[in-house]
């Protein structure tokens, strides 16, 4: 079974910073193992934040674990239908991802792409000449932040949407290599470090 997917747009031939975001619970609501495009709902303010980062010169990179595929709960066709719906909603807001990377492995597979491993981030950085030293990662789970830290991203943002509120204690107890900023949601994130 094909366990990884990558959709990458061409980026100019110079290193650019990126905003790496998790999908479920960060950009869209997380009803759990989302396989139905009719359930895709943008978290308020997420599209506007993506547009702000794009306008500031950041590449927009989606990195998402999709273990529902590896667990047999849905397939890549279902994932693609959800992804197409998300793309349409974002296009209506004037924004698009420069890359979308997904890992379908279950947590026990030991995959280098599955967060908290940094594989998806490093793959996008290598293929798109991204400047990780000036990049930002936002996610609702500790595993998102751990992946960003392992990739060398200096600005990590924990959002309290999705699983974020439940993960607050784990994030607070984590002693990663850089400080983590916690925000209520993605709408509060700015391209300028605060």
Could you please describe the fold and organization of this structure?
Helices cover about 30% and strands about 20% of the residues. It contains 6 helices and 7 strands; from the N terminus they run ββαβααβαβαβαβ. It has helices at about 45-55, 65-70, 75-90, 120-130, 140-150, 165-175, and strands at about 5-10, 20, 60-65, 100-105, 135-140, 155-160, 180-185. Helix 6 (about 165-175) links the parallel strand 6 and strand 7 (about 180-185). The chain is globular. About 45% of the residues are buried. The mean pLDDT is about 95.
**Number of DSSP strand runs:** 7
Helices and strands, in N-to-C order?
Answer: EEHEHHEHEHEHE
Oligomer: single chain
Largest sheet: 7 strands, mixed
Average predicted local confidence, pLDDT: 94
Please give the CATH class.
Alpha Beta
Specify the number of helices. 6
Shape, per Cα inertia axes: globular
List keywords for this structure.
194 residues; alpha/beta; 7 strands; 31% helix; globular
Summarize the structure.
By secondary structure, this protein is of the alpha/beta class. It is built from six helices and seven strands; from the N terminus they run ββαβααβαβαβαβ. Helices cover 31% and strands 18% of the residues.
Could you outline the blueprint of secondary structure elements for this entry?
Elements: E1 4-8, E2 18-21, H1 46-55, E3 59-65, H2 67-70, H3 76-92, E4 99-103, H4 119-128, E5 136-139, H5 142-151, E6 155-159, H6 164-173, E7 180-183
Parallel strand pairs: 2-3, 2-5, 3-4, 5-6, 6-7
Antiparallel strand pairs: 1-4
């Amino acid at each position: 079974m094909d366990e990884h997917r990558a959709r990458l747009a061409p980026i100019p031939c110079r290193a650019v910073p990126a905003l790496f975001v998790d999908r479920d619970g960060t950009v869209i609501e997380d009803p759990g193992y989302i396989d139905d495009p009719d359930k895709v709902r943008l978290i308020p303010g997420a599209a506007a934040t993506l547009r702000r980062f794009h306008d500031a010169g950041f590449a927009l990179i989606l990195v998402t674990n999709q273990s529902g595929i590896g667990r047999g709960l849905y397939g890549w066709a279902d994932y693609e239908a959800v992804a197409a719906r998300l793309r349409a909603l974002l296009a209506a807001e004037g924004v698009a991802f420069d890359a979308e990377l997904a890992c379908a492995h279950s947590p026990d597979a030991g995959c280098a792409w599955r967060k908290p491993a940094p594989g998806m981030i490093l793959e996008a950085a290598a293929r798109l000449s991204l400047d990780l030293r000036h990049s930002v990662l936002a996610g609702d789970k500790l595993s998102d932040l751990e992946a960003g830290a392992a990739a060398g991203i200096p600005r990590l943002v924990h959002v309290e949407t999705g699983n974020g509120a439940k993960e607050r204690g784990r994030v607070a107890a984590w002693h990663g290599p850089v400080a983590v900023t916690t925000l209520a949601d993605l709408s509060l994130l700015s391209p300028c470090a605060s």
